[in-house]
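Appendix B. Chain record.
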Amino acid sequence: MNKLFVDTSGWVSLFIPTETYHAQAADWFKQVQEKSTVLITTNYVITETVALLGSRQRTARPTIFQYTALFK
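Structure tokens predicted for this chain:
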């Protein structure tokens, strides 16, 4: 079983279509899911990601909740 650590920049690139590396992040995430790779992150990364989505990106709370469901 492969494990991979994902930092804030990876999550933000995945969630925000206007980010420079969004397409690469989306492709990567799809490949990771197909290979059943375990994604690892930290509470700090989750907190930082939510803060960036809520403040800088002004992402709606329901959308943030949908994104954070991926952290399970």
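Further analysis of this model is presented in Appendix C.
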